[in-house]
Every structure is written in C-alpha cells, then in structure tokens.
Design brief:
Elements lengths: L1 H24 L25 E7 L5 E7 L12 E5 L14 H6 L3 E5 L18 H15 L5 E6 L1 H12 L5 E5 L5 H6 L23 H12 L6 H4 L1 H8 L4 E6 L7 H11 L1 H4 L3 E3 L7 H4 L1 H20 L4
Parallel strand pairs: 3-4, 3-5, 5-6, 6-7, 7-8
Antiparallel strand pairs: 1-2, 2-4
Helix pairs in contact: 1-6, 3-4, 4-8, 8-9
C-alpha cells in the first residue's frame, strides 16, 4: 500500500507539474483594436510618426507583425542607425513602446517595433519570458539589416524584451549596443516571481490550489521540457551568463529602485556581469517600481536613453566595419 501511495503521489506530482507548466506558458493576447482589456488601439500615426506595416517570420515559422518607422528627411541620422524595440509582458504589445519611440524618432533613429509571438497582431499561443522570443527578436534584426544595409543596429528591450535582448546581443556580436529596462536575472524569477505568476500575485494565498503543493523544481523541469531549455547554450538560456558577452559592447541597464519582483541583489548581478564600463550607464530610478522608471521620470528617461545611444553610435563609428 505504501509503495502504491508513493507511485500514485509521484505520478500526480509529475502530471500536475506538466499541467502547471503548460498553463504558465499559455498565452494569446487580444487583437489590436478589438476593444478587449489591454488590446492596443494606438499606432505610430497617433504620435505623428509615418510608418509602414512589415511582416516578419521567426525561425520556427511563427508569423510576426511589425512597424517600420523612418524619421522625416532632414532629421535622419547619416549612419541610418536602427533601434529595434522589444516590448514587455504587456497586452498592448508593440504599442506599449510608443511612449518612448517618439523621442528616438526625433533624435533621427529609424525604429522597428514588433509584437512578440502571442501578442498583438503576431501569431502564437505561448509566451516564454524571452526564451522562444529570441527567435522573434532575431527576425526583427534580420529585417532591419535587410532594410538598412550596413547601418548599426541597436536593441531596446523592456521586461521580457530586455531579457531577450540580452540573450540575443550575447550571441550576435554585430549588435552595436543594447538598452535593457528591467531584465530578469534568472528563468526561475521570470516564470515564478513576475506579476501574475501561476495565476496570482506573489504571496497571494487567496487563489491557492492543490497543484501549489507540487515542488517548484518539477514545474521548472516541465517548463524546460515544454520550451526546450535543455537544448540551449548558457548564453541563450541564462541572462547572467549572457550579460558579459552582451556587455562587450555598450550596454545600458535600467531598474526601478523599489521593484518588488526583481530584488536589488538580482539587479546587481546583472549590472556586475555587464562589466565596469557599462556600470557607468546603469540607472536605478529612485522610487520606481517594476518597469516604472519611465513613468517616474519620463524626461530623464528619454534623455538618458538618447544620450547613451548617441554615445554608442560614436563608438561604433570609430570601429572598422
């Protein structure tokens, strides 16, 4: 009887772990303009920016949607630098980036904004907080290089997009520079500590369920099996391992001082891994929560980002390409 009970409990735990993992990666955001909560209705035109819709395709065949935004004549940078912008875990998708985009547009940068898989107008029914999304960001970089041949490519990412940007920059030495707002330090944190993890806010016991008794390690293993973590190199899986490689080029990291989900210790791990030169660009916004640096000081945020990009492009121009 004891053996049967152990086998039954183990089977239930494995089954529950797989079910929990599937629920944690399942996602299908509302279509733009659908009127559903969180759905995006804004376009670059609402900020006075001319744009064109551009289709993208990830390596696994997922079809993605993007916006290609070119500055007006007379405002365009001579190097035709492109900033590829990757959004956070926000149902508005690429439209959530429109608060920062006009400042970069006014500074003369070409912009490419896109919806990650399962967000906005892109295909997909799963989200993995930056892992599979690397394919989406890589597709956007490919398109940027095809449209602006020889131009420097900069990456900007927030939250999930920041994590993906670190991983992609680590594996693509041709990326000129990277800006990451609130990247996760570990996949454990990305999946378990982010807002709404496992269907509730961290510490909220009101939505407790029996599956919560399943050891987290089993859920982590089930997530890894579901999305293929075991087949990735450290630089493609671990943000801290990726940071030194990404940090071989200018990298700016932004965090909120009072972020309840990414602790000061985890923030320091990323900043330290990026190296001393990049630490001078790091900004910990006073009093700001998770992804709250822009809202806490929008003018300063825009100024810091543009200053960093301009300095990074000067450095890029000094290199032999």
């Amino acid at each position: 009887m004891a053996v049967v009970a152990v086998i039954a409990t183990s089977s239930w735990a494995v089954w529950s772990a797989k079910r929990t993992a599937a629920a944690m990666v399942a996602h299908r955001g509302p279509a733009p303009g659908s009127g559903a909560p969180g759905a995006a209705a804004l376009t670059p035109a609402d900020s006075g920016m001319a744009y064109s819709e551009v289709p993208l395709g990830a390596r696994d065949g997922t079809k993605l949607s993007g916006w290609w935004i070119i500055p007006a004549d007379g405002h365009r940078r001579p190097d035709l630098a492109v900033v590829v912008m990757a959004h956070a875990d926000d149902e508005a998708g690429k439209a959530s980036l429109l608060q920062l985009a006009p400042a970069l547009h006014d500074a003369g940068y070409i912009l490419l904004l896109f919806d990650f898989r399962s967000y906005g107008a892109s295909e997909g029914t799963r989200t993995t907080h930056g892992y599979l999304e690397q394919q989406d960001l890589e597709a956007a970089i490919r398109l940027a290089r095809e449209r602006a041949v020889g131009a420097p490519i900069a990456l900007y990412g927030a939250g999930m997009g920041a994590t993906a940007a670190l991983l992609v920059a680590a594996q693509d030495p041709a990326v000129a520079c990277t800006i990451v707002d609130s990247p996760w330090a570990t996949w454990e944190a990305a999946f378990f500590a982010h807002p709404g993890a496992m269907g509730r806010e961290p510490g909220d016991l009101r939505h407790w369920k029996p599956a919560d008794l399943v050891p987290r390690v089993l859920v982590s293993q089930a997530i890894a099996q579901a999305v293929g973590f075991g087949f990735g190199t450290p630089a493609a899986v671990d943000p801290v391992a990726a940071a030194p490689l990404a940090g071989s080029r200018p990298t700016m990291v932004i965090y909120g001082e009072t972020d309840p989900f990414i602790s000061f210790r985890e923030q320091i791990r990323i900043v330290a891994a990026l190296g001393t030169p990049n630490a001078t660009w790091a900004w910990r916004a006073p009093g700001a929560g998770h992804l709250g640096a822009y809202a806490s000081a929008p003018g300063e945020y825009r100024g810091r980002v543009v200053e960093f990009l301009d300095a990074a492009m000067v450095e890029w121009g000094k290199k032999d390409h």
